[in-house]
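Handout, section B. The chain below has 267 residues.
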Amino acid sequence: MKVQELTELALLDVHGLLDDEEREAFERAFAASPAAVQARIRREQVRFSDLTALLPDVEAPSDLRARVLQRVRIAIAERETSRRDGPGRTLPPILRSKRVSPVWRAGALACAAAAVVFAVTTIQMRVQYDELHAKIQSDVLLSSMLANYGPNHLRDMLFDGRTERVMFTSANPAVQGEASLWTNPDWQSGRLFYLNLPRQTGEVYQLAVLDQSGSVVEVLASFDSSGGLMTRDVIAASSAGKQLAIVGPGPNGEQTPLMVATMKGKA
């Protein structure tokens, strides 16, 4: 028996698809084969015996066994009833085929091989899609940052050690929001970022300098908010070492410091 025929019979044998005559022929041919051929046949059988990757990742319901047994009992009862009520009408027993059709055998092997190839191809396509999606997201983010901040500001923000970031802290628990101010000695203005400030149309917020008593002594910028992440240029060169605040409408509508920060450096 040729190695290819022996391999085909081995793949069918691992799933119990050989009849008695074919199984005996396979075992005789396998025993007479060289050790290298036997090892190859066993490797193929092990590879095709594990169909875990081709099966859906689901768990069987806890009552599945009980339902199957119930259906078997019902089928047996119906068959017994049919025998009693209709003599001579019982179905003939289904005899097991003595041989497996070569066409069916070839089709079964082709389907198994196609399923393995399809699974591998699907996994590879998924990995390539994830990589492409990550690259597109990165390109979109970088393009947006370049458009908003310019190449020089973006490079300084990311890689210049002289660039300073000052974080604002909440001064009014009733108003939720975040803000930070970025400055650099080479910039003519600072860059203010703010997030989740209550939506307001018109320039109702102010970046201001406060005195020791917390009163506004200088307004550096006025701006609005869409409620999301926003940014704008502000005058910050003269505010080193001073107390800053983002001033806006409080719960009662009056202008009040919402967030405060202290600039680094000397005044």
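Note. Residues 142 and 154 are 9 Å apart (CA to CA). Compare this with the example in section A.
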